[in-house]
Hints:
The chain is an alpha+beta fold. The protein has helices at 61-67, 92-98, 103-110; strands at residues 7-13, 16-22, 28-31, 36-45, 50-56, 87-90, 119-121, 134-138.
Amino acid sequence: MSSRKYFLKTQFIGDNIAPFVSSPAGNRVMPYEAPLISGASATFITEDRTIELDVADGETLMEVAVRNGVPGITGDCGGGGACGTCQVVIAEAWREAAGEASDLEIAMLEADGEPQPGARLACQVQMASNLRGIVVTVVSH
Ligand code: FES
């Protein structure tokens, strides 16, 4: 049996993230459309509005936000946890399900000062069925 691995990658096209499948040699094989999680949503609270969005299985909160143009989340580093342009505060009810921030993530959050309780990089929070209905507040800069 072959052990060749294909990878799911993303790239920016304009302001949108375009997922695609990459071959073991790094060639783009096909566009990928992740299935939406049935009935799943994520709600982003910005300074002047509340935006509820459908989410796809495995998408990060940053990818959901950028794909839909949520103000205040630009995801400049493409999800590498290196730019801090995707900061959110997770509502208390979902903090445990979202998990703990890694040391690297905490360091990035602290670069802007003392992080608020529940602060996370949206690119490090991957949607799964236990996060259906998650509510986050976008941290404005
Ligand atoms: S997209 Fe750069 S830190 Fe999240």
